[in-house]
Structures are given as structure tokens and as C-alpha cells.
Amino acid sequence: MKLNKKDRQQMLQTTIRNTPFITDEELANKFGVSIQTIRLDRLELKIPEVRERIKHVAVQHFDQVKSLSIDEVIGEVIDLQLDQSAISILEFKREHVFSRTKIARGHHLFAQANSLAVAVIDDELALTAKANIRFTRQVKEGERVVAKANVVKKGKFRTTVEVNSYVEKELVFSGDFVMYRKEDVQREG
Amino acid sequence: MKLNKKDRQQMLQTTIRNTPFITDEELANKFGVSIQTIRLDRLELKIPEVRERIKHVAVQHFDQVKSLSIDEVIGEVIDLQLDQSAISILEFKREHVFSRTKIARGHHLFAQANSLAVAVIDDELALTAKANIRFTRQVKEGERVVAKANVVKKGKFRTTVEVNSYVEKELVFSGDFVMYRKEDVQREG
DNA sequence: TTGCTATTAGTACCTAGTCATAATTCAAAT
DNA sequence: ATTTGAATTATGACTAGGTACTAATAGCAA
């Protein structure tokens, strides 16, 4: 079953999207055409060569790894008063939701809130000791969650941080985090 | 400051680890030696060529993306009795810990426990409504955390799951998760 | 048969290498 | 001072997976 140009190019796109590491030669075999035809197709569809595609995937991954270790807060911090309050925004994308239901996975809401609680503490080291959390409304793919952290109690070694997360005006998550700091690091988070 | 062979090879390794997309030519310039020397070094250190390195990073990333969307549990499930109990193992690597202190970030422990609590529920849909969690000991890079989930209460719409996570015999995390299921999905997790 | 698109072929060139051999440099030991 | 051996550099042939360009051929409709 030989395909016409249009169909072949259609299939070519999805094939390359699914298996980006495929070479022109392999594609030529797959579609029963010459290598030159595949190259013309890629030219028309503006699909780069296999080595560029591989590199693209790798660079993306590498950047992701880098930014994760540099910026240790999950979400974008838009306000930060050390030992007082902080606000971060996280947009829930495909990677944050259950693929079937498109509902956000709880640990991402937790991660946003928890890392904000860590960030608000004005100390070299802050670790979560305890947390009491409520998920009050589903978050769906595409929604932007605004997390607001407030320091509610500050002891010598422990700080209690309250975090409320909203979509628009609606509360979607709230949690009380008991944080340990600096010297007294028997516990973790 | 020209380096001797040993020091150069030492630096070469860390350079390539940090910037794996560097070519032999760039490395030769960086170290003030010929390309051939770099190639001999790579041969001795068993470091593959740049295109292989790029591919390696890309393949890793690609596999990760695939497995994340297929298998939605964080960690490896090694036992699962639906509506009864489940066990998963997660090895804490560099990406799970604070880069400075090498101590595990709390939300990864939470994610392992929470996703196991979701998995143990024998229903189409299970979402976390509430959770009460304690971090009882730090987890360090390289440690393997075994999470054990037990269903402790099963109501019509809610199921309570208790999860305890251990490194060896030591309790590092424990949490009570109140899960909603199926029809009654007003809340989320 | 002409005209047009699609396809295939062929050539020169490119990058970033491998593999093998040979030549050169340098420093330490005799 | 010379020799020896390791380290370094050079050279040439070859590879994969391409780009860029030109030219030839195939298929089909007006």
C-alpha cells in the first residue's frame, strides 16, 4: 500500500514525533521510497535531521535538570518576605495531571506548597517535620495555582507556616507545615 | 598552566559530566592540547564520542517521559493487593535531594507515599482529600526508601490509607491519607 | 504531445568522529 | 650527553548521516 505524498508526509510527522531517533534510511525503508524523497519531505515539513532532533531532546532534558537543581522552588516565586510571607504561581500542565482524568496529582500541589514553605524560612536550612494538608477542590489541566505562604508561629527551632493555594478565588489546597531549621536537624523534609 | 596527563584526564571527566555536549575540538582548545590527545584520553577513560553522549541523554529523557505517562506510580511497585496493601521502592538520587545538603526533599517522599495510596485503591478513580504526614528521619542521597501502604478503613466513598516509609528498618516517613473514590469526586489529590 | 509534479539519482561537501601507523617531543635515568 | 619510554602530535583512510545542488526520469492529466 503505497501512500501519496500528502499522506506520507502526514505519517512521517507522527512517526518522527513518536520515534525521533529514526534515520532517513530507516524512514525510506518504512515508506518504500528513496532516501531523497524522505529528505525532500523533511525539507518541506521543516523537520531537522536526526542528529539535531536527538540534540534537541537532550538539551531540553539537560536544561530541565539544571533548572531543577538551581531553582529549588517548584513554581515561580513572585513575592518573598523572609520569615513572613511568600507567593508562588504554578501552571498545571500535562505532566502534572492524571493522563486519563486531567485532574492534578496531589503531590504537585503539595510540592508547590512545601517548597514555598521551605523558601520563606530565613535560615540556611529548613526541613519539613510535620504537615497537615487538605485538598479542597480539584485542579484541572491548564489552571494556574497561586500558593500563599504565611509564617504563623516562630519558635527557636520550629517555624509553623500556613499555605493556602487558590485557583482564581477558590481555595484548592491548604496546609500547615511545621518546619525545623538549622541546628536542630533531626528531622527531614 | 598546562596540566599533566593525570590532572587533565581528571578535569576532562568533570568537564564532560557538566557539559556533555562539548566536542573534542572544543576540549582540545580548552586544555591547550591537540584533538588527538583528547581522543586518546577519551579512549583511556572509556568516554564515548559527543554524538553518543548526546544520544544517551536524549534516550534517557525519552524513556523517562514514556514511563512516567504509562506508569503513574512514583517508585517501583513490588507488591499490590488491591484495597488491602501495597509496597513500593524508590531510590533517592541526585534529582531528589537538595543539592547543597544532599538531604531528600519532602515532596518526593510524599509523592511516593501518595501515589502508592492512590494505586492501592481498587476503583477507577481515587483522589486524596486529606493527609496527615510526619517526616521522622532525614533521607540522604543514595538511600532506598520502602513505602508500605495499608488500607485501614473503608467507607462507601472514603478509604483511609496509612503509609509508612522506611530506610532499612528505620521509619523515615508516615502519613494517613483520606482518599475519595469514584462518584463522590468533589475533592482532589 | 506537452506540461507539471513527484520521485529518484548523482556529485561535492560537511561534521565529528574511528582506527591504525608513524613521527616528534620531553623528561628522567644511565 | 645520550638513551629510553611515555606522552603527544600528525597523517591518512574510512564512517554515518547528513546538506545543497543539479539533473534525469516517471506518472498522469489536459
Q: And the CATH topology of the largest domain in chain A?
A: Thiol Ester Dehydrase, Chain A
- What is the rounded distance between the termini of chain A? 58 Å
**Quaternary structure:** homodimer
Largest sheet strand order of chain A? 1-2-4-5-6-3
Q: What's the structural domain tally of chain A?
A: 2
What Rg of chain A do the Cα atoms give?
Answer: 24 Å
Mean pLDDT of chain A: 86
User: Briefly, what CATH class of the largest domain in chain A?
Assistant: Alpha Beta
Number of strands of chain A: 6
- How are helices and strands ordered from N to C of chain A? HHHHEEHEEEE
CATH superfamily of the largest domain in chain A: Hotdog Thioesterase
Number of helices of chain A: 5
Residue runs with pLDDT of under 50 for 5 or more positions of chain A: 67-71, 184-189
Helix content of chain A: 25-40%
CATH architecture of the largest domain in chain A: Roll
Content of β-strand of chain A: 25-35%
The general outline of chain A is: elongated
Largest sheet of chain A: 6 strands, antiparallel
Biggest chain pair interface: A-B, 49 and 50 residues
Please identify the structural class of chain A as seen in this structure: alpha+beta
